Amino acid sequence: MRAALLTAYRQPLEVREVAEPDCPADGVILSVLACGVCRSDWHGWSGSDPDIVLPQIPGHEFCGVIEEVGPEVRRWRKGDRVIAPFILACGACPDCAAGNQTICATQIVPGFTAPGAFAERIGVAHADHNLAALPEGMEPAVAAGLGCRVTTAWHGLTGRAALKAGEWLAVHGAGGVGLSAAMLGRALGARVVAVDIQDDKLETARRFGAEAVVNAVDTDAAEAIREITGGGAHVSLEALGVAATTEASLRCLRKLGRHVQIGMPAGAHAAMTLPWDVVYAGQLALFGTRGMPGWRYPSLFSLIESGAVDPAPLVTRRIGLNRAGAELAAMDGPTPPGVAVITDFAA
């Protein structure tokens, strides 16, 4: 089958023929319909993720059609259209039993600890515990675009920070996760302030539900948010994983505010110096969040099917497999609004 391989950090991906994946006994083989190109993939491409052993096939935001079913699978059949969370949980440990699949100790992460979906086909383990059926009529590119952006934002806002209608939500970074958070926050009845350093991304954030925007190049973002919100945000979400925006996220909160760390701190940002006096004095709550359990897909799909949110505009670039490496390299600098999704695995 055709796949794009990471064979050396910060180098072009190699698109070539590779061996077909083996079907896990408790899993399936999917023919990949679409796969998002995510900043987490960029972390892997740049050498910031210690889980990756080269060579590796990236890609963790995927949907597909089941082509083969392992003998232990009970819920799925050949031909089913499905999506999977990027954290494939075992389904049997105490954390999984408690509904906390994102912290499963034996989790599999496609593109990082196992071959990913920058490929025509992918093997997906623990299918009964992770797969969710795609809603009828949902375009594959839109489904893949949900990826770890919309799903992680949904779980971060509802499963972790418990965002309430009428609260102020500050979103630091108007990339895929940030735009998703703005869209979902608005749907939940929150008032949204978006922060970025690119005016085009801020204008896009307005279209996705931001009531106010702040260009951090021109002003102190935390101070501006405190003024806009009349004292500070109730919830602040950091979507980049860098020290400057994490500090701004903490400083923009009102007392008893909740900070949600969605951006992955890696490389030089893995150990940040932060204003712990602000955390202490404001009695702030800090939530780390990564991914979404597979069992939460129905709640997100219900929101989409109700018409309260439309994730389709998130997908601004549909590309061929050959373009995946260029998309990753472009993340070294400013990128255009929206997300790229691989939809053609022959090109």
UniProtKB/TrEMBL annotation:
PROSITE patterns: ADH_ZINC. Keywords: Metal-binding, Oxidoreductase, Zinc. Residues 10-342 form the Enoyl reductase (ER) domain. Transmembrane segments: none annotated. Pfam families: ADH_N (PF08240), ADH_zinc_N (PF00107). It comes from the Bacteria. SMART domains: PKS_ER (SM00829). Its cofactor is Zn(2+). CDD domains: Zn_ADH6 (cd08260). GO terms for molecular function: oxidoreductase activity, acting on the CH-OH group of donors, NAD or NADP as acceptor; zinc ion binding. Coiled coil: none annotated. SUPFAM superfamilies: GroES-like, NAD(P)-binding Rossmann-fold domains. Belongs to the zinc-containing alcohol dehydrogenase family. This is Zinc-dependent alcohol dehydrogenase family protein. It comes from Pikeienuella piscinae.
